[in-house]
Amino acid sequence: IYRSTDGVNYAFIVQLAPNASSYVAASLAPGTLYYWRVYAVTEGALSAALAGSQATSAAGEITCNGAGGLWSSTATWSGGVLPTATDNVTVSDGCTVTIDAAATINNLTVGQGTSGILQFEATTARTLTVNGSVTIASGGVFQSAATGTVTTHLLSVGTNLVNNGTLDFSTNVNTAGAELRFVNAANNTMSGTGTTSDLRLLSLSKGSGTVTTSSPVLEITIPFT
Predict the structure, then answer these.
(1) CA proximity to 56, closest of 83, 26, 88, 79
(2) Each residue's pLDDT tens digit, 136-159
(3) Using an 8 Å Cβ cutoff, are 191 and 182 in contact?
(4) How far lies 217's CA from each of 2, 3, 211, 214, in Å?
(5) Which end of the chain, C or N, has fewer beta carbons within 10 A?
(6) For the chain, what is the mean pLDDT?
(7) How many Cβ atoms sit within 10 Å of the Cβ of residue 143?
(8) Among candidate residues 224, 163, 162, the one with its CA nearest the CA of residue 199
(9) How far apart are CA 3 and CA 161, in angstroms?
């Protein structure tokens, strides 16, 4: 079984046991059209492909309530539910949200043009996995803790990051911080017009590419401070 999101570049997903007639596709991004190719295989050869496509359901939309709060608290979020991997999350203007638990979401927006703060907690390392994109709006702030000495927080980004505000992952006079990691086998960008992009550690874990002419590339067009 092979899968694609553009109908051109296909990635191998799995080979099933002999005589298998079904496959459950898990961990798909919401609101995405997937293309599929299925082959029968013998020793050393593939059949012609059975090809088709299927769109997933649209992502949910969750924003923070009032002044914000802890990520793990249902009171922090609209509808009183915690964000999941199928949700787009917005830290709205006037909110301060503290990441106090591991979490996985679809897309992330910090701020709506004037304010909005998302920060890692001060005492325990946490991981926020964003399967899609991260956008920090003008006036928005995404930072590691202003106190403490934890430097092993992690933001994992599946596609692109746009910083039009403040991204500060080396705080408390550089004694606290977080790693920014780009994942998935595709070309992505780190861009924006923000005046602060302060990183302690930038890493790539993009595996082998589905791009036909090159390995996956992260293009950085934003100045670091």
Answers:
(1) 26
(2) 999 999 999 999 999 999 999 999
(3) no
(4) 22, 20, 10, 8
(5) C
(6) 92
(7) 21
(8) 224
(9) 24
